[in-house]
Amino acid sequence: MTVGLVSAARSGPVFERAPRWAAGVLLAMTVAAIVVPTLASDGSRDIGDVLATRLVPPFSRDGRGVWHLLGTDAFGRDLWVRLWTGARISLGVGVTGSALSGALGILLGAIAGWRGGVIDRAIVAFGDALLAIPRLVLLLVIASLWGPGLGVVISVLGLTGWMSVMRLVRADVQGARALAFVEAANALGVPSWRVLQRHVLPNALGSALVAITLGVGNAILLESGLSFLGLGIQPPASSWGNMIAGGREWLLVAPWIALMPGLALVLTVVACTALGDALGDRRTGSDIR
Which of 55, 119, 131, 146 is deepest in the core (most CB within 10 A)? Predict the structure, then answer.
């Protein structure tokens, strides 16, 4: 009866709609980040009369008669175009950083779970030592030592976020290693690496995919935090983090400068979290059935 209730809850309308709207939001943001900056300019190259174009409220026209959907910033740049220009970096850093940390976690988790022994204990101990240190502290220390920049942010996110994926993959590989088909393959003389690659590891990628999806939102949030503190993406390149940082001194006069990228950041993180949770619930539901 309990299994039936759980299965019914997971097949309900709320569960079915959650991955759809989350995926739709992320897809729309990706398309906008690609299309909008390509078709329009934020006006950063057209100096003109800055006094006529700066700090224009949303849904208003500037002194030259140009209409701005989200208004302009203190330098007269259109926030709608600048928002999606920053989305290219923020979304790209989030996806790339999470994918890099996921690939590293899958590799180390597979090695630890399959080999066992000293190698397993060494990898797990190293991962536990990094988990004991708050990730934000690691990010701040490494970014301050290496210096700010796009490559540094992606590398730091990848090198500090693999531990949870490693533990998930390690547990799945250890469970699959004890199954009968693995023992039969070993008895038939199939190379150990081939058994791991073709039969064991694919069964462990489901939980890793869920963790990587959840990690995208976290990576975007961390990148924005680094950029806000001046240790991430540096102007004139735009990301949501440094857009929020640039608008904080105008909060009382022009709050839309920081509000718009802040709302986009929150919506993206919520969508990534909802999609990851839905994938995790679906995987758990299939295991129960």
Answer: 55
